[in-house]
């Protein structure tokens, strides 16, 4: 799994008809900055409103997932979002000149192809994973649906479907590595049972559906006269059914378990609405959009519960965003006042820096001799230097500026910092920069415990 955030290198478009609205639209994927996430934009509406791909914006689940914000509605977002997750893209703006993404062939593969053609670009920020740290379970006993998330330092999915059909037996699909999504899952197409087809048309759904973008499963015997009726319904001169296969017009399946694979695709797309990439083992039995969204809301609720005490994740095996050499180029500090060893995350609003505390620190011989404790003022200095990197990131030529700490408020030291500790400092802006002055909140953690915190004011001054 990627450790850095990614976007696309250039804009790319696809066009086609929407599955449920039947409205033709062009959808354009555009690069977006770090921590932007997935956002849709209705460029055909006044003001070109933005719709965040967020589970709290879901307003309809009639055979697809529909989101709405600021009066703008986007139908059937799951196949588009699944493609973005499947390519491990984090930040993309999706512009639409209609109410629904094109259904294309009923899968995600043509979105995948377009995005790969646009190229993938790594960004200078770490991915903000949420690692599921407890068992999360959703169950609908009436429909015999269950979804579960188990802690795992990866993202894997297993899906089982069982429609009690003589045409489709129980099927399973799995994805052990998200990087395999384009090859193993993306081309699996949406499907519908014959007994559902007429009802969907009567509900004013699948206006854009035909035999080129959906698999129609014939789960009962049909007469020749009924085939003529179906042909008229689907705007085809003629349709047929191979009773052995049970697929209308003898459509060839891409996989024997294509239905289970498509359900896995839907789960990937719907869970993208959580708003952050997750690490978990996902198990889904007979999932559907309503269950997927309800499950996603439970995971998002867990994220919100943990947010107040969320300590930045530090994996020492991963390469830093800025190593000590780059830090030395940006900050003027040198021994014995160079306090930060590396920067592991940096975006427009926040930064995370690492300080490895050793017994060789120059302050230990004179500070509490025989009982080495890192001075609070040095903790604050390390926090300020971390914040200095964030302040310098606001200008295109940081080598030409000095970052100065000019104010400290609400400073607290919660626990002792000792030799052998690794302090994780996180600083984030609390106000926009005005005339070179900006406010930040900083916190330091050791082993998930808060050790220090302060509100800081910094000034950015151009070198003469």
TrEMBL record:
<keyword id="KW-0479">Metal-binding</keyword>
<keyword id="KW-0456">Lyase</keyword>
<feature type="active site" description="Proton donor">
    <location>
        <position position="289"/>
    </location>
</feature>
<keyword id="KW-0444">Lipid biosynthesis</keyword>
<comment type="function">
    <text>Involved in unsaturated fatty acids biosynthesis. Catalyzes the dehydration of short chain beta-hydroxyacyl-ACPs and long chain saturated and unsaturated beta-hydroxyacyl-ACPs.</text>
</comment>
<comment type="function">
    <text>Catalyzes the hydrolysis of UDP-3-O-myristoyl-N-acetylglucosamine to form UDP-3-O-myristoylglucosamine and acetate, the committed step in lipid A biosynthesis.</text>
</comment>
<dbReference type="GO" id="GO:0019171">
    <property type="term" value="F:(3R)-hydroxyacyl-[acyl-carrier-protein] dehydratase activity"/>
</dbReference>
<dbReference type="InterPro" id="IPR004463">
    <property type="entry name" value="UDP-acyl_GlcNac_deAcase"/>
</dbReference>
<keyword id="KW-0963">Cytoplasm</keyword>
<dbReference type="GO" id="GO:0046872">
    <property type="term" value="F:metal ion binding"/>
</dbReference>
<keyword id="KW-0378">Hydrolase</keyword>
<protein>
    <recommendedName>
        <fullName>Multifunctional fusion protein</fullName>
        <ecNumber>4.2.1.59</ecNumber>
        <ecNumber>3.5.1.108</ecNumber>
    </recommendedName>
</protein>
<dbReference type="GO" id="GO:0009245">
    <property type="term" value="P:lipid A biosynthetic process"/>
</dbReference>
<dbReference type="GO" id="GO:0103117">
    <property type="term" value="F:UDP-3-O-acyl-N-acetylglucosamine deacetylase activity"/>
</dbReference>
<feature type="active site">
    <location>
        <position position="367"/>
    </location>
</feature>
<dbReference type="GO" id="GO:0016020">
    <property type="term" value="C:membrane"/>
</dbReference>
<feature type="binding site">
    <location>
        <position position="262"/>
    </location>
    <ligand>
        <name>Zn(2+)</name>
    </ligand>
</feature>
<comment type="similarity">
    <text>In the C-terminal section; belongs to the thioester dehydratase family.</text>
</comment>
<comment type="pathway">
    <text>Glycolipid biosynthesis; lipid IV(A) biosynthesis; lipid IV(A) from (3R)-3-hydroxytetradecanoyl-[acyl-carrier-protein] and UDP-N-acetyl-alpha-D-glucosamine: step 2/6.</text>
</comment>
<feature type="binding site">
    <location>
        <position position="266"/>
    </location>
    <ligand>
        <name>Zn(2+)</name>
    </ligand>
</feature>
<keyword id="KW-0441">Lipid A biosynthesis</keyword>
<dbReference type="Pfam" id="PF07977">
    <property type="entry name" value="FabA"/>
</dbReference>
<dbReference type="GO" id="GO:0005737">
    <property type="term" value="C:cytoplasm"/>
</dbReference>
<dbReference type="InterPro" id="IPR015870">
    <property type="entry name" value="UDP-acyl_N-AcGlcN_deAcase_N"/>
</dbReference>
<dbReference type="InterPro" id="IPR010084">
    <property type="entry name" value="FabZ"/>
</dbReference>
<dbReference type="InterPro" id="IPR013114">
    <property type="entry name" value="FabA_FabZ"/>
</dbReference>
<feature type="binding site">
    <location>
        <position position="79"/>
    </location>
    <ligand>
        <name>Zn(2+)</name>
    </ligand>
</feature>
<keyword id="KW-0862">Zinc</keyword>
<comment type="similarity">
    <text>Belongs to the thioester dehydratase family. FabZ subfamily.</text>
</comment>
<dbReference type="Pfam" id="PF03331">
    <property type="entry name" value="LpxC"/>
</dbReference>
<dbReference type="InterPro" id="IPR029069">
    <property type="entry name" value="HotDog_dom_sf"/>
</dbReference>
<keyword id="KW-0443">Lipid metabolism</keyword>
<dbReference type="InterPro" id="IPR020568">
    <property type="entry name" value="Ribosomal_Su5_D2-typ_SF"/>
</dbReference>
<dbReference type="GO" id="GO:0006633">
    <property type="term" value="P:fatty acid biosynthetic process"/>
</dbReference>
<dbReference type="InterPro" id="IPR011334">
    <property type="entry name" value="UDP-acyl_GlcNac_deAcase_C"/>
</dbReference>
